[in-house]
Amino acid sequence: MDKFRMLFQHFQSSSESVMNGICLLLAAVTVKLYSSFDFNCPCLVHYNALYGLGLLLMPPLALFLCGLLANRQSVVMVEEWRRPAGHRRKDPGIIRYMCSSVLQRALAAPLVWILLALLDGKCFVCAFSSSVDPEKFLDFANMTPSQVQLFLAKVPCKEDELVRDSPARKAVSRYLRCLSQAIGWSVTLLLIIAAFLARCLRPCFDQTVFLQRRYWSNYVDLEQKLFDETCCEHARDFAHRCVLHFFASMQSELQARGLRRDNAGRSLEPPAVPEPPEGLDSGSGKAHLRAISSRKQVDRLLSTWYSSKPPLDLPASPGLCGGGLSHRAPTLALGTRLSQHTDV
């Protein structure tokens, strides 16, 4: 159970691992969908190509869009591209790196579907059976052009009475299936060679730009995630204080109307608003959150965060000199910087 918890925390803290897991999951779902799909070619002259190419290309398009939707970095990339410059310049290299990373993961499942369809050959036979040159086969010599077109359209339907047990149908089907598998294996080989060259040749070049873009792309993702977490933390604390203030004001109103009397006849004291424990302000770093205590201030903070993000020149923190890095430290520095930058 502890190992499972550690693995879950690793995936939760690593956005890249989560995206790779989603990519593998989509690829596995693609294989399952294709294996369970019942392929039925219409075997009509004007519809075979439309059905075959549609089945070859439309599911990959849907899987590609699902990969973009499931990848959180696609939204972060668009936000980084469209945001105002403000106090922080936009680096096109970071956007290109994020776009490349998003596309690589989103294209995995569509490529799996296309390769499976090509290696299986059914979609290819259905789509291009009517486009085969009849002169390559001797069995069509005694047929008229209209009969040839009708016969070729019936090639994917081996149970049809017109082409059942026909050597010509088997020859055309075998020819198209071999061509489809050759294309599928060629594409697979090219992808493997490209991945091998990219992995082997990358260390031969200067890694400075790559490391910088990888670092700042991860920073943009983590910064937005920490900002969202801090906003949720502030909203929860702000709602808690508003509820306490509401109950305290209702208690004062009830006392003012005389619904509560002091049995001893002593003067009533105004109720004190319950305060949270001291540890919330001192130990957990919520003091910077409590400085934002009105809707106008919250709206101004959110508007400032969108239109003018703080520059990346934070002063060195004395607490980090001897104690190492902490994954909670950026949250405090981020919140402190926000409160200083917005002046609310």
From TrEMBL:
Keyword Transmembrane annotated: yes
Domain of life, per lineage: Eukaryota
Keyword Transmembrane: yes
Region described as Disordered: 264-286
Gene Ontology molecular functions: monoatomic cation channel activity; voltage-gated monoatomic ion channel activity
Topological type in the membrane: Multi-pass membrane protein
Record's GO cellular component terms: basolateral plasma membrane; plasma membrane
Transmembrane segments: 21-37, 49-70, 178-198
UniProt subcellular location: Membrane
Principal place of residence: membrane
Any matching Pfam family: Ca_hom_mod
Gene Ontology BP term (one): ATP export
Alphabetical UniProt keywords: Ion channel, Ion transport, Membrane, Transmembrane, Transmembrane helix, Transport
Stated family: Belongs to the CALHM family.
Name assigned to this protein: Calcium homeostasis modulator 3
